[in-house]
Amino acid sequence: MKGKLGQVAIALALLSPLTIGAAFSQEKASAPASATPAPATTSTRVMEQGALDLVKKMSAKLASTHEFVVRTRSSTEAPGGTGQFLTFFTESVVAVKRPNKLSAEIRGDAPPFDFYFNGEKMTAYEPTHKLYATTDAPKTLDELVPFAAKTAGILLPFEDILYNDPYAVLTQDITSAFYAGYSVIRGERCEHVALAAPGIAGEIWINAKTDLPCLIAGALLDVQGAPRFTVEFYDWKLKPKLHDELFTFAKPKGAEPMDFRALTGAGR
Fold first, then answer.
1. Per the omega criterion (within 30 degrees of 0), is the bond before 111 cis?
2. SS (H, E, C) 207-247
3. How confident is the model over 148-185, as pLDDT tens digits?
């Protein structure tokens, strides 16, 4: 059982929060009139309203989308045994029904992990060894994110898209924001915004047609080596007609209950 717990702890440790990502400037043509790219060589902190407006449009789109399904691909750097950073990948299928329902199927370099929240209960399930933990939960997605982190050590890599007001979260305590051009991601033009806050340098790419996030990347500046993380969002379904049963854990035959802190290794 000790070995099983270690594997589960590794799986959840790879689920890093992605509030904002790493910033660097890049010049490209055809910028929106309201957001002129900052010079690539400048080191001065700036606060461009055009860049903030792009983030605000993205946030408004997310907040007004009451049900959706999206796929994500995340990468997280973590120190290996020699101190060298290693990169781990995680893919998720995320279903959201505002204001209080979430389910996620998370797969990748760590053992598989499923997560359920229905406005009453929060459940984590590791299907390989049929281990699960469940507890009473807060009533909204906004409350869920800090609750899951504090109660169970669960940090969701796609948490930015869950909030009722993503703009307030993404821009909290920021010290600079500027437009950095655009990139083509999965064949779509995505506007590139750089943000910075104490301890984090970040980037957000926003789909120019849909206003949905394409990619978020970041560097943790206060951590030795400034490890980076990314989360890509794709295959959005904005009118999926999700049934409430999707967000409630149905215990498989033979599944064993455990305490959250033991299941995630957060108590160590």
1. no
2. ECCCCCEEEEEEEECCCCCCCEEEEEEEEEECCCCCCHHHH
3. 988 888 888 889 999 999 999 999 999 999 999 999 99
CB 68 within 8 Å of CB 234 = no
Contact status, residue 35 vs residue 55, Cβ threshold 8 Å: no
| Torsion from C-alpha of 248, 96, 169, 108, nearest 10 degrees | 80
Nearest to 42 by CA among 172, 176, 190: 176
The full set of domain ranges for the chain reads: 2-264
Please state which CATH number belongs to domain 2-264: 2.50.20.10
pLDDT band with cut points at 50, 70 and 90 for residue 27:
very low
Judge whether 216 and 21 are in contact, CB under 8 Å: yes
**Structure token digits, residue 230:** 């990314």
The Cα-based distances of 82 to 53, 57, 78, 169, 219 in angstroms read 43, 43, 11, 35, 21
Query: Which residue matches tokens 């120019």?
Result: 208
In 3D, which of 88, 67, 71 has the Cα closest to residue 228?
88
Average pLDDT, the chain: 84
**Cβ-Cβ contacts under 8 Å for 220 (sequence gap 6 or more):** 199, 200, 226, 227, 228, 229
The dihedral over CA atoms of 253, 254, 255, 257, expressed in degrees to the nearest 10, equals: 120
Burial 143-182 (b: 16+ CB within 10 A, else e): ebbebbeebbbbbbbbbbbbbeebbebbbeebebbbbbbb
Nearest to 131 by CA among 268, 245, 12, 267: 12
